[in-house]
């Protein structure tokens, strides 16, 4: 099937098998390797992308279902050589060890901060009717729980996100 995807601001026309996931289309067809293949079951978050502005795991999304979608990967967050504030914070806080989960963590954090700004409550949100959710460490940890880190760098991931979210 022929589809068009806009990835990191660039339009791509692809001919894909209907069973191809967005993750496989990004990595295997477009060579965008910042999106990682971890569990391939939607459980680890290594393949997190922004799909039309919302967090999604690329391994569970079929490419053909997202014709003309706008996709942002970790590679697309930077502005040329200027890192995104969350990318900078992860470096400054040493919020990674092996780094495999880092792209998914950062993309997920970008989407999570937008959700909180829009007032989307989580199970730990104190006031579910608030127009904007305060991103405490507990709130960040809960909202990022779909992104796993095998190295357990959470003690640095949460402060890195908190610094950007609360600045």
UniProtKB/TrEMBL annotation:
CDD domains linked: fer2 (cd00207)
GO molecular function, one term: oxidoreductase activity, acting on the aldehyde or oxo group of donors
Sequence ranges assigned to domain 2Fe-2S ferredoxin-type in this UniProt record: 1-77
UniProt keyword Protein biosynthesis, yes or no: no
Keywords: 2Fe-2S, Iron, Iron-sulfur, Metal-binding, Oxidoreductase
Known pathway: Alkaloid degradation; nicotine degradation
Domain of life according to the entry: Bacteria
InterPro entries: 2Fe-2S-bd, 2Fe-2S-bd_dom_sf, 2Fe-2S_ferredoxin-like_sf, 2Fe-2S_ferredoxin-type, 2Fe2S_fd_BS, Aldehyde_Oxdr_Iron-Sulfur, Beta-grasp_dom_sf
PANTHER family given in the database record: OXIDOREDUCTASE WITH IRON-SULFUR SUBUNIT, OXIDOREDUCTASE, IRON-SULPHUR BINDING SUBUNIT-RELATED-RELATED
Protein name stated in the entry: Xanthine dehydrogenase YagT iron-sulfur-binding subunit
